[in-house]
Structure formats: structure tokens, C-alpha cells
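Table S5 (text form). Sequence records supplied for joint modeling of the two-component complex.
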Amino acid sequence: MAEAIVVEGLVKRYGDRDVVDGLDLVVQEGEVLAFLGRNGAGKTTTTEILEGYRTRDAGRVEVLGQDPAEAGSDWRARLGIVLQESQPLGALTVRETLRLYAAYFPHPRPVDEVIGLVGLADQAGQRAGRLSGGQKRRLDVGIALIGRPELVFLDEPTTGFDPDARRQFWDVIHGLRELGTTVFLTTHYMDEAQVLADRVAVLRDGRVAALGTPAELQAMRGGVEIRFELPPGVTAADLPGLSAAPDLAGGAVRVETSAPTRDLAVLCSWAEGRGIELANLTVERPTLEDVFLAIAGDHGEAQA
Amino acid sequence: MLVEQVRADLIAFARRPETLFFTVFLPVIFLVLFEAIFGDIEVSAGSDYALTQSTLQVPAFMAMGIVSACFVSLAITMVNRRETGLFKRVRGTPAPAWLLIAGQGVTSLLIGTTMVVVMLLVGRIAYGVEVSVDRVPWLVVSVLIGAAVFSCLGMALASITPSSEAGPPLANLLVLPLYFVSGVFVPVASLPDWLSSAASVFPIAPFVKIITWPYDPAAPDVPWTSVLLLLAWGVLGLIVAARFFRWLPRRG
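The corresponding C-alpha cell record, covering 556 residues in total, follows.
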């Protein structure tokens, strides 16, 4: 499989601050890559360098085989870009907007096909300014798809969506994958990355701090968590021996284990033998969000 | 491509009631009001003939229409589109920069020309103001030169305007005083000399002069100095516009 994006040692400075500081990343063709990181980690800066909006201070960047800093309109014709903020001409209808953007591209998709792809058939005649937030974002994606792009950049596409709108949006991205389009998705939402992404890159201090499939990242955190409440009349010393020492906070017991099956069996037969029902017993893998919080660091200041 | 762009720009323009009012209707309303108030006043516009203000006001408000469409409205629209990220968005497509510029330029030209035609007809029908047939080509040339020059100036203003909020006040601050001292609202002849000579340096006065010429049968030769001065402003506008044009919003 060929590479859609190759980044080696990318550096971008603002003043004396290295916003992007030696970033390496490869995105394969047809892949959906989720690009995560706290505000200020360098997400939007990196994305805009890949899109050709910003220059870089050092490093090698190749997007669809070309350097974005030098690529021309032939190269742009192969991209679809959804910016963080969208502001289509509010006075134009959905169909008129797509028709205008279709005129910019050499081999556009038929307007009605795109309207179907982004699920705006019922709003085709409605003015863009009167669409809901979720519908506007889908129009943005429609604009990005009109030129039959090989690679689509989505910068925080679902910020401010209600859960329904987010799910509808996810369907659109799934549809893109089926078309074989490479998707570079910047997002703040872990569930979104989990559902959509083939691989996840977590950015920290301008570098990729972790990269892998959602399952691989979850496995990095190691253990599974077993939690229950300490039964009345039982002390920590009474608990059976588990593969890891239990963590007690108030009446709650937490065990982080890499052998959940064995520990659960021990725990359950112990409780069963004493006729105890373990209150609030749960077994959980760490979520991608837990992993993200651990990797992305907690010192990120809110910066646009 | 250009046709689609102009089509979209015209639709976007026509669907915004406030721009439609300020750009298109206001100069026409002004023409009607000024005709009613000052129409009978006799002026001598550098000729021996007695000419009423009624006649001069028709081309004067044509000039206002062109300035309104090609300078004020164009600059405000371009700033808005840049600052809201629309240009940035288009930058992510294969569309070239000239398309946005030409699209808005042609759109403004069409709007301005429509207003000139409306005023020509209003002047002819309501006030009996006629332009001699052999000077109609000059009227057309004046409109085209004016539209081109004020579009360049509008682009220049847009490229140096820092924010969407600054667009309308800045554009109006520049043109409103000039309308008064350049022969649009008040006949040049009734201005103090120092004021009219100061105003004659700026682009609206020479434009009013050349667009008025076809309406003044006794006016001497074509005002070539005014044409050159106006073109010089256009070139200056073009240079500033090209030098400071940007795709991305100024903020952030």
C-alpha cells in the first residue's frame, strides 16, 4: 500500500516556542487516522502545514507525493479540506453551494450524489445560513468531497454536536472509508477516534507520543480494572491473594490486573464460599480516554 | 468557472436585504430626493449655457451608484469573506485567486451598470434629462473606467482593512465626505475654491467630471486630465491590492 502522508522531523516555531517539535508520522492510503492531542499540542498547526496553509521551519513533508509548501492547484484538486471553523456563504442553498465548489474542480462528483453522501437531501434547497450546526458541518464535508478527493482532512468536525448529529456524521465518515478515501481526522473526542479510526496518533508537546490501533493503545495501559465494594465486616486483610495488591479508597476496592480471568475466579470463589454478594462488581478495560489522559499529559494549557 | 462564481456572488448579493438597500436603492432614492429639492436650481457647469441641477444630478448619482457597488460594497464583501474564512476555504481547492477577485469585480460591474441604466431611465422618463446620442459611447466608457478603477480601489481597501467590523465604517468614512465635495450631493460650482481643488485630487471628483461630460452639451473637450488622474488612482489601488492581498483571516 502506498503512503498518503509522510512527515519526518517536522518543526514549526512561533517566536521561541516550538509548537511542532520533531514530528514523525506516516499515513497509509485508504486509512482513517485520528490525530489527538490537547489544545496547544500542535494539532491544528500540523494539519495546516499538511494542507499547505502554513510554512514549516524544518523537516520533510510529503502529502500525496508532493511537498504542500510548493504544490499547486493540481495537488489541491486531489484534497478535500474541512477546516475547524466553517462559514459557507449563508445566502446560498446547499445545492447552490455545492454547485459553486464543483466548478472549482476538474472532475467533480455530481452535486446530487454528494448531497446523498452527506445526507442532506431534505435540505438541498435550504439556505446554508439556516442549517443546524450538524447540517452545516455535513455541508462542509460535502464541499470537501465534491472534487473526488483521495485524501480528506477533517479538523474537529463534530465539536458542538448533539449525540444524534455526531452519529449521523460518523456514518458519513464510514461511507468515505468505503470509497477508499484516506481520512486525516483531528478530534477531541475519544469515542469518535475509537469508532472511526484505523489508527490513532496522540500528540504531546509537538511530537507523536503514541501511535497505534485503538486496541493497541488501550493495551499500552496494561491492566484491566476490577472494582467492587468491600463487604461489611470484611477488612482488606481478609481478601484472597490476587495478582496485584488491591487499592482501597473508602469502601471501594480497585484492582488493576493483567490476569483478570484468574483474579476474578479467585475473587468469586472466595465470595461464594463465604456467601457474600460483591456489591457493584465491575470489570473494565481502560478506555481510550484513560489512555489518552495518561499519554497526552495534564499540563496542556487551553490554547487555540 | 467564472460564470458560476459570478452567478453565486450575484445570488449572495441579491439575497441580503441590507446590502441591496444600501448599495442599490439608496443612490436611486437620493437621486429622486435631490431632484425634488434642488432640481430647479440653475448652475453653469463650466459652460455658457444655463444648465439645471436636475440634469447634472443624473450622472452624479450614477457615479455614486458605481462607487457604492464597486468600492463600498465590494470592499465590505471581500473583507467579510476573508475574515469569515471563506477565502481560506477556497484556498483549499484548485480555484485560483483571480477567480475570487474577478468574480466579485464582474458582479460589482453588473450591479453598478444596472443602477446606471435605472438612473438613465429615471432621469429620462421622470425628469426629461437626455444624453446626446453621439456621446453615449463616452458614457459607456466612463462607466467602465469608473467600475474598473473603483473595483481596484475597493480591493485595495479590502486588503488593508483589519476586520469585518472595520469594513463598513471605513468604506463609508472614505466616500461620504467625498460625495459632498466632489459634485455628487452639492454642485462643485457652489463649493469654496480651496475645497473643490482639494477634492479634485481624490478619485470621486474626476469620475463625476468625466461621467457628467456627456450630459453637458456645451462642455468643452473630453476632460482627459480627469481620465488620467482616475486611471492613476486605479493603478495605485491595484498595486496596494496585489501587495496586501491575503487568503487567510487577519485574526488568529
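Note: DSSP finds ten helices and 13 strands in chain A.
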